[in-house]
């Protein structure tokens, strides 16, 4: 599918961001723009600052200098307003074990002020690929893939302009990964800006419109998908391996 995002506004706007934890400079002039209706994957070695980037968008940490805007809102100044515009899937999705899938969705939507009817929730669980017999089961026995489906159903229902994903496919098998990626594309096609932090190069190449490599606290290279071949995965792998080795050194 051709996906022209050249004129879309940036739902995620990060410009010249600098952030240190005490003396440790983690982000150093980071610039990253994610237009509405597009998916950017952020790759980088362990400790490169990927999760910290998400934390600044969520207003959990404040940068020392630079600009961060989420749908035009500075999360450093108005964290609650920014978070209302964000659906966030952390690596280990926090759901309630003793509640059913529907009860989890109902409760989480109530917490974010986005209450929906049961029929709307079950439609979203179905769209997320959760089988009907699981809807009224407690989450205690769910696999990671099933939990991700509940979480993305909630994200779908919140209809927010920004979706942040932290390592969403780690621990998912290839089938579950493909299903998850299809859902992320569906969210993107609704006009949401998606930023996905990942080590999973294949998944990034499958789902993203752009891939940014984070190294030394900034994006050192950004590649865009083009045509039917999308990305040259071999070249990306070589690039990624070099960056990871440098960070580990
Ligand atoms: N709250 C904190 N206080 C101090 N240092 C921190 C804090 N959070 C992260 N760091 C440090 O900042 C650096 C970047 O961490 P971050 O979690 O953003 O990296 P990452 O790219 O997400 O790594 P990974 O791929 O391992 O999850 C690391 O060196 C980490 O130890």
Which helices and strands, and how do they pair?
Blueprint: E1 10-21, E2 24-35, E3 38-43, H1 50-57, E4 65-70, H2 79-84, E5 86-89, H3 101-111, H4 118-127, H5 144-158, E6 162-166, H6 174-189, E7 193-197, H7 201-207, E8 210-215, E9 218-224, H8 233-248
Parallel strand pairs: 3-7, 3-8, 5-6, 6-7
Antiparallel strand pairs: 1-2, 1-4, 8-9
Helix pairs in contact: 3-4, 3-5, 4-5, 5-6
Bound molecules: adenosine-5'-triphosphate.
Give the proportion of residues in helices: 25-40%
Kindly state the number of beta strands: 9
Shape: globular
Which ligands are bound? Answer: adenosine-5'-triphosphate
Supply the number of helical segments. Answer: 8
Give the end-to-end Cα distance, rounded to a whole number of Å. 40 Å
CATH fold naming of the domain at 9-85 and 199-249: Rossmann fold
Largest sheet: 6 strands, mixed
CATH superfamily of the domain at 9-85 and 199-249: P-loop containing nucleotide triphosphate hydrolases
Our estimate of the beta-strand percent is 25-35%
CA radius of gyration is 18 Å
Name the poorly predicted regions: none
Strand order in space, largest sheet: 5-6-7-3-8-9
Mean of residue pLDDT values: 88
CATH class of the domain at 9-85 and 199-249: Alpha Beta
The class by helix and strand makeup works out as alpha/beta
Give, in order, the helices and strands: EEEHEHEHHHEHEHEEH
Label the CATH architecture of the domain at 9-85 and 199-249.
3-Layer(aba) Sandwich
Domain ABC transporter: 12-241
InterPro entries: AAA+_ATPase, ABC_transporter-like_ATP-bd, ABC_transporter-like_CS, ABC_Transporter_VariousFunc, P-loop_NTPase
GO molecular function: ATP binding; ATP hydrolysis activity
Enzyme class: hydrolase
